[in-house]
Amino acid sequence: MKTATLPPIRVAPDFRLELEGVLEQGESLSQFVENAVRATVARRKTQAEFMRRGIAAIEATKRDSDGIPAEAVIAKLEARLSAASQAGQGTARRMKYTVEFSEAAAQDHHHWCGPPPA
Question: Which of 2, 11, 58, 78 has the fewest CB within 10 Å, making it most exposed?
């Protein structure tokens, strides 16, 4: 199979020097760029598949009406946070992060899927 070329890219001279400084022994700039492009393509394919599976799971949950409302999950986490606060600071800090993360995830869920059914 014949090879194809990627378009050349322009970079600032100081960035090119920085790039050349991180090349491994015997590695060419072309090899570095090819490896970077391959890694980015693989990462984007993985991200796309992750999103596809996530959206399919959300649709299945909506269709089957067997999901747990985000508000219920957050309320449960807040109760755990309250209990952790009484137990000790380290645990409470970790729980607070979990609750904040879950609230952000719920907002993301509402953004992509709409509000929960009434």
Answer: 2
